[in-house]
């Protein structure tokens, strides 16, 4: 009996060492979860608002606003210069207002888009609450008189190109993964926005 006990004890010891070493060799430490897009753009860190003297703004929201405003500016510039394939037909009302010196619609569009992207990428505080229409309604000319026509797949791709150029202009595209994540957000909206 002692002989079997020593053998059993020896096997148990060898098995426990083998199993322990296997467990240690095969243990995979998961990567920490990636920060939200909003957090990677600066998140809720408060910084001076360059457009509103004496006011503060979250860095994430400011970075989104810069990209949004640059993208709108690029679209408007191409539309005003009659660049072939421009997106001006979608923004006729807005462009007419801006050309007449009325920037109220521009400010509202900028604020709505900034809030939409900020909120939907991790900026979940009250400042970033989106108050505009859902994407289907916002892009349907029969429900939204401010959009000139239904969006095509080709034109949505052009819009993404303007956003990409605006991201480059504002240093956002320097972080390749961040840029890819922003494009993924835009692509997730494609089925709701394209209506033609």
TrEMBL record:
Q: Which InterPro entries match?
A: Globin/Proto
Signal is among the record's keywords = yes
User: From which domain of life does this come?
Assistant: Bacteria
Q: Which UniProt keywords apply?
A: Signal
Q: Where is the signal peptide?
A: 1-20
A GO term, aspect molecular function: heme binding
Stated name of the protein:
Group 1 truncated hemoglobin
């Amino acid at each position: 009996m002692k002989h079997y006990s020593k053998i059993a004890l020896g096997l148990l010891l060898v098995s426990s060492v083998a199993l322990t070493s296997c467990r240690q060799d095969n243990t995979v430490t998961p990567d920490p979860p990636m920060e939200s897009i909003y957090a990677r753009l600066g998140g809720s860190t408060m910084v001076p608002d360059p457009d509103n003297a004496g006011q503060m703004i979250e860095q994430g929201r400011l970075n989104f606003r810069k990209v949004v405003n640059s993208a709108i500016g690029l679209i408007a510039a191409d539309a005003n210069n009659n660049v072939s394939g421009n997106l001006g037909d979608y923004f006729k009302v807005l462009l007419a207002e801006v050309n007449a010196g009325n920037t109220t619609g521009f400010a509202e569009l900028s604020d709505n888009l900034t809030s939409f992207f900020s909120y939907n990428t991790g900026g979940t505080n009250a400042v970033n609450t989106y108050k505009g229409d859902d994407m289907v309604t916002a892009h349907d000319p029969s429900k939204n008189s401010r959009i000139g026509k239904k969006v095509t797949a080709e034109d949505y791709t052009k819009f993404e190109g303007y956003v990409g150029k605006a991201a480059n202009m504002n240093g956002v595209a320097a972080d390749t993964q961040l840029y890819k994540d922003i494009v993924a957000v835009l692509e997730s909206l494609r089925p709701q926005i394209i209506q033609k």
